[in-house]
Amino acid sequence: MLAGEATAPTAERLMRSRFTAFAVGDSPYLLRSWHPSTRPGDLELDTDIRWTRLDILETEAGGPFDTSGFVAFEAFYRERGVQASLKERSRFVREVGIWSYVDGAPVG
């Protein structure tokens, strides 16, 4: 999935593929899967961060026939030997059959 177009049948699957892209440092995929209305011009990933695990906490809509959805998650990482996590509720939209990440808000 990461090598080609950013396509996924659900918002959750796109969230999982985006986590993988962060884990392997695939910023082109992250930009392709980002909605044009909020996508940055470029994306430089922090090479000191090693993403290790993704837990999906909740989904709201985001199915194969929906046009929008939310995915709440906790992503675990290590940075300079310290383990930490990031919790976010991400918003996704599906246009012309393709899911895109729009934005996210911190959780908790």
From TrEMBL:
Pfam families per UniProt: YchJ_M-like
The name this protein goes by in its record: UPF0225 protein
InterPro entries, alphabetized: NTF2-like_dom_sf (IPR032710), YchJ-like_M (IPR048469)
Source domain of life: Bacteria
Domain YchJ-like middle NTF2-like: start-end pairs: 10-104
